[in-house]
Amino acid sequence: MARTKREIDKERMYKKLMPSGRRAAKAPAENAARDAGGARAESAAAAVARTSAARRPSGPRRVAVPAMDNRRTAVVNTMEAAVLGKLDSVLERFSCCRCDRCKKDIVALALNKLPPRYKVLAEGQPQPDLDPQTNAQVVAAMIQAVIKVRANPRH
After folding, report:
1. Which member of 7, 59, 110, 121 has the lowest number of beta carbons within 10 Å of its beta carbon?
2. How far apart, in Å, do the first and last CA atoms of the chain sit?
3. Is 73 strand, coil or helix?
4. CB–CB of 52/107 below 8 Å?
5. Residues 125, 123: Cα–Cα separation, whole Å
């Protein structure tokens, strides 16, 4: 019986999308061919169990990285440090509410506007200074955040 083009295309797409189904279908046929040839006799159930065990993920791999130095380090977002450092001066200039909720809202809105800049700093190492353009971006984001929070405080 002749197959239509649609049936052929459907089968080809299934093989592309479901490669595991194709392998499982081939495994018993290959075992039968080996059995007929007299190579090694094994049951179809054992072959299926072996192929399903081979496809099973073994879990995440853990890689041990040796410590290069003994100093304690931390990953720090320098933008967050810059925003927190300028928070009090911006609140004074714009006479905004100083409650904890408003301060956190201002910091969150400003950090969402700014790109994160992460650095690895040793314990006790001071924060690096920002270049003038980044400093201007921080101030602009904070001013926008203060205006937004002052217009709609959430307390």
Report:
1. 59
2. 75
3. strand
4. no
5. 6
DSSP string, 96-130: ---SHHHHHHHHHHHHHHSPP-EEEEETTPPPPPP
Instruction: Work out whether the CA dihedral 133, 112, 95, 101 comes out positive or negative.
Output: negative
pLDDT tens across 18-48, in order? Answer: 766 545 555 555 555 555 544 444 555 555 5
Domain borders along the chain are: 5-55, 73-151
pTM: 0.53
The per-residue pLDDT for 62 is 63
Question: What's the pLDDT tens digit per position in 78-116?
Answer: 999 999 999 999 998 988 888 999 999 999 999 999 999
